């Protein structure tokens, strides 16, 4: 809004200079978020790393570069991937500038604008449906954890091995388990008997509704639909579960002779998958009732912020130009270094506050917020600038800035997507990218004359 209002209201030359300020602000904001703030959050949120996972609120290893750090959930890795993908419009608009004529470059600006808008809308749709996707995925993994927990319980209490030497289900052992669970000897398991089984196992790893768990076990076993599990249904159900567990084991393991190992392996992998999805139980049930007011408050604050931005657009951008003239500092560097400190202050404060809680859940929110802010920078802000460039017939001549945005976004995006645990040493990479970006822009612009 700052650049759009100022760019549309002035002359073409003024609009060109405003886009320069805007691109500087965009590049500086992206770089600051992914370097200074990202690295600071690793330091502030660090906990002891044990078994490749940061332990919530345990920070005894101080500044150990490999022994302390933060862990995030798998959704944060997805956010990092999306952020890396968001640089595609930059590549579309930039590459033709090197080889093609002015008319073809203008076409590239239009194509990049369309791609940026499509990606922006797709990202917004993903944000709307992400909670539902998370809930479905978490629900599915909780069910798998119930399955693996029951199999582990059966393995410990079975009257014989659950698998034969050939790796097939041991029908006799499964039948004896059924008889052991059938307390009233009526040749079928009732929902109450299944509930007693689930309560007896005590799934301390997850927070789940026991009625829901019983219902899903019944759904897996009860093929007749009479809300009871007879002996044949029990044998078929356990056999199906064992087959599912076997598929998770490397092919080199002889499951027939390693029944204990493969069930333990299945249970461990399922627990790890559950942990990577994140623990959403901390959010509290009270937040659901406040969701409508939260939405209304968010919309009102967005409208207020937009109005303030529109009202002060010209004075702010003009102040940048005046300060640049008075100090003889290029306006790009003012917008690259100084303005991001103001425009990203809210993200910085909230991210550091969340990181300071030293939990996987809050660390995931912290880094997801950073990746999300950069994604919106790369898509929404770029779309506005491209629209201004196309509408006012401006020149797109920001090769150095685009290169910096692409390098930092891709490096940190790939880095965040392949690791869910970030040791303390990773912050040094983030911090190093900030001066690297400044030096690279200066060399490309003022030594090689790219812009």
From TrEMBL:
* Ion transport keyword on record: yes
Q: Where in the cell is it found?
A: Cell membrane
Q: Does the keyword Zinc apply?
A: no
**Which GO biological-process labels does this protein carry?**
intracellular calcium ion homeostasis; sodium ion transport
Give the residue spans that cross the bilayer: 20-44, 75-95, 107-129, 299-320, 332-355, 367-390, 396-415, 422-444
UniProt xrefs under Pfam families:
EF-hand_7, Na_Ca_ex
Q: Residues in domain EF-hand? A: 169-204, 209-244
UniProt keywords (A-Z) are: Antiport, Calcium, Calcium transport, Cell membrane, Ion transport, Membrane, Metal-binding, Repeat, Sodium, Sodium transport, Stress response, Transmembrane, Transmembrane helix, Transport
Membrane topology listed for this record: Multi-pass membrane protein
What is the superkingdom listed in this entry's lineage?
A: Eukaryota
Q: What is its main location?
A: membrane
SMART domains, A to Z: EFh (SM00054)
Extract the InterPro entries matched here.
CaH_exchang (IPR004713), EF-hand-dom_pair (IPR011992), EF_hand_dom (IPR002048), NaCa_Exmemb (IPR004837)
The cellular component terms of Gene Ontology attached to this UniProt record, alphabetical and capped at eight, are: plasma membrane
A GO molecular function annotation here is: calcium:proton antiporter activity
Q: Which PANTHER family match?
A: SODIUM_CALCIUM EXCHANGER MEMBRANE REGION DOMAIN-CONTAINING PROTEIN, VACUOLAR CALCIUM ION TRANSPORTER
Q: Which family does it belong to?
A: Belongs to the Ca(2+):cation antiporter (CaCA) (TC 2.A.19) family.
Know the name of this protein? Answer: EF-hand domain-containing protein
């Amino acid at each position: 809004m700052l650049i759009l209002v100022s760019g549309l209201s002035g002359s073409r030359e003024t609009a060109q200079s405003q886009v320069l300020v805007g691109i500087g602000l965009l590049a500086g904001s992206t770089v600051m978020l992914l370097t200074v703030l990202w690295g600071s959050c690793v330091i502030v949120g660090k906990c002891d790393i044990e078994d490749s996972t940061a332990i919530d609120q345990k920070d005894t290893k101080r500044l150990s570069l490999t022994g302390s750090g933060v862990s995030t959930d798998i959704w944060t890795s997805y956010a990092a991937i999306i952020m890396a993908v968001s640089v595609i419009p930059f590549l579309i608009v930039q590459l033709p500038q090197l080889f093609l004529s002015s008319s073809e470059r203008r076409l590239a600006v239009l194509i990049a604008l369309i791609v940026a808008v499509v990606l922006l809308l797709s990202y917004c749709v993903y944000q709307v449906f992400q909670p539902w996707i998370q809930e479905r995925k978490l629900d599915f993994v909780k069910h798998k954890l119930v399955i693996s927990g029951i199999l582990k319980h059966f393995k410990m209490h079975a009257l014989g091995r659950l698998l034969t030497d050939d790796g097939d289900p041991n029908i006799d052992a499964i039948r004896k388990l059924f008889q052991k669970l059938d307390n009233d000897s009526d040749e079928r398991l009732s929902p109450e008997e299944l509930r007693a089984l689930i309560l007896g196992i005590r799934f301390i790893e997850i927070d789940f509704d026991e009625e829901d768990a019983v219902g899903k076990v019944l759904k897996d076993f009860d093929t007749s639909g009479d809300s009871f599990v007879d002996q044949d249904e029990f044998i078929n159900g356990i056999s199906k579960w064992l087959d599912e567990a076997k598929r998770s084991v490397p092919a080199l393991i002889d499951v027939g002779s390693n029944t204990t190992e493969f069930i333990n392996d299945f249970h461990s992998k399922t627990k790890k998958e559950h942990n990577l999805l994140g623990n959403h139980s901390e959010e509290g049930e009270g937040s659901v009732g406040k969701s409508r007011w939260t939405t209304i408050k968010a919309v009102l604050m967005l409208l207020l912020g937009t109005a303030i931005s529109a009202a002060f657009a010209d004075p702010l951008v003009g102040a940048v130009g005046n300060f640049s003239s008075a100090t003889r500092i290029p306006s790009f560097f003012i917008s690259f270094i100084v303005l991001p400190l103001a425009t990203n202050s809210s993200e910085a404060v909230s991210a550091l506050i969340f990181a300071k809680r030293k939990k996987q859940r809050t660390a995931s929110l912290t880094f997801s917020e950073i990746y999300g802010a950069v994604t919106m920078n790369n898509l929404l802000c770029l779309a506005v600038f491209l629209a201004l460039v196309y509408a006012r017939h401006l020149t797109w001549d920001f090769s150095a800035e685009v290169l910096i945005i692409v390098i930092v976004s891709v490096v940190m995006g790939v880095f965040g997507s392949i690791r869910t645990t970030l040791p303390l040493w990773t912050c040094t990479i983030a911090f190093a990218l900030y001066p690297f970006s400044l030096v690279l822009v200066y060399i490309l612009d003022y030594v090689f004359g790219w812009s």
